[in-house]
């Protein structure tokens, strides 16, 4: 496989995963990075580098971050942001793929980018539901702060070291699946194999 494609896939995966934590933080980071020529967008995605795109993503980022600090709204917001995270992950993944066939590019972006964003979003939702259950929602701002930091950190790190983000992402998904599996078996009173 061509080295350019491998790097593009790793970069796209890192940014798509960031969309699972916060939809608009990685979109804003990608937009600013594209504006300064750090984020290599493919033909047809140059609009990401425009001032209107940066302004829109910046405004949406501020509202998204603030909304996650409002009790009850944070849990409701998860149901709204899940499809947006899949869309954002798909868009960011597709924007870096050096594939000439448009259908193949978008399908690949959806499967990889949208799938990764959905997986991370699922882990994020699980963390918030657990926090709500254990603390009555009092611990949710701590979870939200961690998610904000993860979204920003993963987005920035994806631009300079995408393979590190992919490795961390794989570990995060394995951990999330382990926790999810334990919760399911605990609800069904089935012993979990160790």
Topology (elements, then pairings):
Blueprint: H1 3-21, H2 24-35, H3 51-67, H4 73-96, H5 102-135, H6 140-160, H7 162-187
Helix pairs in contact: 1-2, 1-4, 1-5, 1-6, 1-7, 2-3, 2-6, 4-5, 5-6, 5-7, 6-7
Task: Describe the structure using short key phrases.
mainly alpha, 194 residues, single chain
Report the helical percentage.
over 70%
Radius of gyration: 17 Å
**Domain tally:** 1
**Main sheet properties:** none
Spans of at least 5 consecutive residues whose pLDDT stays below 50 are none
* Overall pLDDT confidence: 88
Give the N-to-C terminal Cα separation: 38 Å
Shape: globular
Fraction of residues in β-strands:
under 5%
Structural class: mainly alpha
Written overview of the protein:
The protein is mainly α. It has one domain (3-187). Helix content is 79%, strand content 0%. The protein has seven helices and no strands. Helix 1 crosses helix 2, helix 1 packs across helix 7 and helix 6 packs antiparallel against helix 7. The chain starts with a helix and ends in a 7-residue tail after the last helix. The relative contact order is 0.17.
């Amino acid at each position: 496989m061509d080295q350019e494609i491998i790097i593009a896939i790793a970069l796209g995966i890192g940014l798509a995963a960031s969309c699972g934590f916060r939809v608009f933080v990685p979109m804003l980071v990608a937009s600013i990075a594209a504006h300064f020529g750090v984020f290599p967008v493919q033909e047809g995605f140059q609009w990401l580098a425009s001032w209107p795109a940066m302004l829109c993503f910046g405004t949406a980022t501020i509202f998204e971050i603030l909304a996650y600090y409002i009790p009850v709204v944070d849990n409701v917001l998860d149901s709204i942001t899940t499809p947006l995270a899949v869309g954002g992950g798909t868009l960011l993944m597709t924007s870096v793929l050096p594939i000439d066939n448009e259908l193949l590019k978008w399908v690949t972006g959806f499967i990889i980018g949208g799938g990764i964003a959905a997986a991370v979003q699922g882990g994020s939702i699980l963390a918030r539901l657990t926090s709500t259950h254990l603390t009555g929602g009092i611990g949710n701002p701590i979870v939200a702060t961690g998610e904000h930091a993860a979204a920003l950190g993963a987005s920035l790190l994806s631009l300079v070291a995408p393979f590190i983000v992919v490795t961390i992402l794989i570990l995060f998904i394995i951990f999330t699946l382990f926790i999810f599996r334990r919760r399911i078996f605990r609800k069904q009173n089935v012993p979990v194999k160790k």
